[in-house]
Amino acid sequence: MMIVRRAFDRSSMAELPEDDAASLERKLAVAAQRHADRDRWLPPHERIGILRRLVPLVEGKRVHLARQICLEGGKPLMDALAEVDRAVDGIRHAVDVLRTDGGREIPMGLTAASADRRAFTFREPIGVVVAISAFNHPLNLVVHQVVPAVAAGCPVIVKPAPATPLSCLDLADLLEQAGLPEGWCQVFLSSDTALAQALATDPRVAFLSFIGSARVGWHLRSMLPPGTRCALEHGGAAPCLIDRSADLGRLLEPLTKGSYYHAGQVCVSTQRIFVHRSLRDAFLERFAARVLALRAGDPVLESTELGPLISPEQVTRVEQWIEEAVASGATLIGGGRLCETTLLPSVLVEPSPNAKVSTLEVFGPTTCVYAFSELEEAIAAANSLPTAFQASIFGNDLQAALLAAERLDASAVMVNDHTAFRTDWMPFAGRRESGLGIGGIPWTMQDMSSQKMVVFRTR
User: What is the dihedral of CA 343, 345, 349, 351, to 10 degrees?
Assistant: First the structure.
């Protein structure tokens, strides 16, 4: 049995039966059969209708879903409500893409050999999709993986994180209520890593969508059979630069949000803050005061701004990383435990560039602050890791902003905003060890489709 526990107090929420090897085989066989039977593929108008009916169903459970996100994942209620709203918007956007994104004409007659021909493309579902999801956005991440599969016409098997399966189960149930036929969206519940690997690497799977740790994601990719496509979304230690021209009063709120949202458990959470030496002391004084004022506690309370980490083991790990940084010379502002599951927010000043907090993704409520003298120096430090995802710079000097935008090794650079900014229709991608492929509803729908070209000889 899979025991689902409240992230904050570790009390039991539910006990769910886990899938075994026989169940895995049944679900893979059903999904493969659905794709193999072309006569029963879901036409676009049916997919549009299902997704349109899904929207009011999710909206009708907004408070229930948000509270569930709070309980199983530990996200504060105000942020959990925003997650549900984002999920609804993502469903709507998938419908918009279906209505507007089609094939195109391929020019012919450009050479004598291609004369008297007309060619065009259209999209077909790629095949069985397997989606392995993460705990930190238990509803919206599943929407990002499952809804594009439904929109593209692919049967999908989704494996939620063992800590947060309830939101995924609710979404699958609502899809069924919206009219999605049996077998087109199946949930695989298991904490067995061997079974998860067997699911991801089965030759009947055409596309693997994986959100989680780089270690697991790249390992799975190395084991995929020939022909299986994949998208990997990992994380990094997102850098933020504060130029000498920055307005400290305007950056405190967005930077605090981008650094401590969901207790730092976000793949693009601001972790490394590089501040110009002339602003360092003033910035630290104001930033630390704002960070330490964050209200930590039970995420279901409307006043809570910072909730628990996903497990006590993660609390211990983050504490150890902070202690190691202090032992190697960093100055700690704030910190400590509220309880077994919840760390109080902290700031580390000038940790060693070799410390874990400087080189690895912390995934906890702490940030690192480093002083720099020249912007090029900060850019070089920001680019020094094998991970690269989103980055940002605060400043009113246009030349500095453009330099950072061009030189920072990131898939997206935010100017006068935090690194965790995202809309669900923009491309979202990690570079190097941080991921493979492009996320975002339109790009995922493209990944889950195959283009087919038809060429007519007219004479």
Answer: 30
